[in-house]
Amino acid sequence: MCGLISCQAIKSDKAQSKAAPLVSQIYTADPSAHVFDNKLYIYPSHDVDSGIASDSDGVHFAMRDYHVISLDSVDQPATLHPKALDVDDVAWASRQMWAPDAAEKDGLYYLYFPAKDKNDIFRIGVAVADNPTGPFKAQPHPIAGTYSIDPAVYNDNGEYYLYVGGIWGGQLQHWHYGKFQSQAKYPADNEPALMPKVAKLADNMLSLAEPLKDLILLDQNGKAITQGDNDKRFFEAAWMHKYQGRYYFSWSTGDTHKIVYAIGDSPYGPFVFQGTVLEPVVGWTNHHSIAEFKGKWYLFFHDSAASNGATHLRSVKMLELTYDSEGKIIPINAYK
Ligand code: FUB
Predict the structure, then answer these.
(1) Does ligand 1 have an atom closer than 6 angstroms to the CB of 311?
(2) If you count DSSP H runs as helices and E runs as strands, how many of each does the chain have, helices first?
(3) Is 159 a known active-site residue?
């Protein structure tokens, strides 16, 4: 099995990318894509070289702010917008502004982001703007009842669902019965894996309407995916989209470096495993989103090809995503 320091999924010198970075002024990662008013907006992390040595908790991902990327059409260059939010403007946050997402409701835009609080515990915050690119104004406290990382917000006809979670550095293994335990606890390899969490957002988009609960991911035999099934079990990078009336939940397998997906009939699941969306990319992390724009579907992802494989210096890219006649995603290899 690969470790965070010792293994990269694909070496940069073997990778001929099919896609170019959307922007090259800064390093960007963890793209969450949405279409607002017929324009594509991507909410990424902003990778920086902090000089912090890497560890398996990802302390070298020391991001401090967010910038939004937008595209009027896929044939035109992307626009990188000015800073949308800085950690110094978030009263409760201390460090590590990781993968964000955004949602629109009634003309306001909500940026959801994970950051470590003053006790070094990851929480999910929310910041509000009157336009999609910000600047966003952060709420004074994290969203009550939230924890871990990688928020993804899915708008299902005006009902908004928040998905969160990540193991290892994402701290999900420290949460039991809604309480943070300093001792990490993982299920045994043959037990159900730690599952991502879901809750509906309240009407004000600033709080949860209900406590976070497990989003159940099943294998093709209807059994919960087990902790030892590293090729399938949830690691981080939750995303939800709907295709032809069915809900597609996708995620990163972490130490096996894939983006995989499962299909369900409700935003709450359960979801049945289907297969791979994206093969491993250059760098350790794999993180994505999926959105429809002007009649075509696209996969948004990142890799470290432009930084010669530096895991914490990634670039956001996009490729068209297609389905077969039964709605199965045709797996993407970003290099072949
Ligand atoms: O960018 C920091 C972390 O790396 C994200 O939160 C994870 O999903 C992984 O991409």
Answers:
(1) no
(2) 0, 23
(3) no
- pLDDT tens for residues 98-126? 999 999 999 999 999 999 999 999 999 99
Q: Is 150 in the pocket of ligand 1 (CB under 6 A)?
A: yes
Ligand 1 center to residue 78 CA distance, Å? 22
Q: Are 178 and 208 in contact (CB under 8 A)?
A: no
pLDDT at residue number 311? 94
Run of H or E including 79: strand 79-86
The structure tokens 């994505």 sit at: 288
DSSP letters along 246-284, please? Answer: EEEEEEE-GGG--EEEEEESSTT--EEEEEEEE---BSS
Task: Say what the pLDDT of residue 5 is.
Answer: 39
Nearest to residue 251, comparing CAs of 27, 34, 30, 95? 30
Best of 61, 87, 234 for a ligand 1 pocket test (most atoms within 8 Å of beta carbon)? 61
Q: What is the pLDDT of residues 42-54, one digit of tens each?
A: 999 999 999 999 8
Q: Check pocket membership of 45 for ligand 1, CB cut-off 6 A.
A: yes
- Residue 198 pairs in a beta bridge with 163, 213
Torsion angles phi and psi, residue 307, rounded to 5: -105, 20
Whether 65 contacts 126, CB under 8 Å: no
Please say if 236 is a catalytic residue.
yes
**What CATH class is the domain 12-321?**
mainly beta
- pLDDT of the residue at 3: 45
